[in-house]
């Protein structure tokens, strides 16, 4: 079992805020997780992921992006992305100060996109990326690809994607991933949409363990 506590660090700007999951024993590594454009760090996906990884020995911080710290609802306002990336960097730095070894960065949809841009700009910041439901393009607009930074993304990245995600089909994801110069892999979640968590109870129960197994297989195979 692991413990969960509220996390706040206002020593820098932007401040870091969220919930810290601490494993029962010394952490094997750390994972910083953040949410999508319409959610916060208490989303079901982030909570399920954090609990699974913490029970597997990871120190996990699920954090609110700066735009969500300012307002409880609604999408990020225009021009918020750069500050949101600064907020992610602050969260990573807070966890690094705890001396847990490798620190990984993950996010759902918008949060994952900002995490990948941050990692492309600062490849030494984290050991790898865990990207849930990457929003490859807006729904029904496949020509508007959000991959301008992908040719610079050398950090290893594990993508977790639903087979019914309107932001990108699995075929579109596989085709776009040819742009990535760094190591990458794709974990397919059958029947899942953009929210990613499967609707069937059994599938939801296996989501965390299957994600951890794919994570370990990918990052420990180097």
Q: What this model shows, in words?
A:
There is one protein chain. This protein starts with a strand and ends with a helix. 43% of the residues are buried. It has an eight-stranded mixed sheet, with helices on both faces. By secondary structure, it is α/β, with parallel strands linked by helices. The protein has six helices and eight strands, in the order βββαβααβαββαβα. Helices cover 32% and strands 22% of the residues. It is globular, with a radius of gyration of 16 Å. It has one domain: Rossmann fold (3-Layer(aba) Sandwich), CATH 3.40.50.
* Percentage of residues in DSSP E strands: 15-25%
Number of strands: 8
Largest sheet: 8 strands, mixed
In which range does the helix fraction lie? 25-40%
Q: What is the mean predicted local confidence, pLDDT?
A: 94
> Unreliable segments (pLDDT under 50, ≥5 consecutive)?
none
Number of helices: 6
- Looking at the structure, the CATH topology is Rossmann fold
User: Based on the structure given, which CATH architecture is correct?
Assistant: 3-Layer(aba) Sandwich
Give the N-terminus to C-terminus distance in angstroms.
Answer: 29 Å
- The H-and-E topology, N to C, reads as EEEHEHHEHEEHEH
Principal-axes geometry comes out as globular
Name of the CATH class: Alpha Beta
**Global structural class:** alpha/beta
Strand order within the widest sheet? Answer: 1-2-4-3-5-6-7-8
Radius of gyration equals: 16 Å
Total tally of structural domains: 1
How would you name the CATH homologous superfamily? Alpha/Beta hydrolase fold, catalytic domain
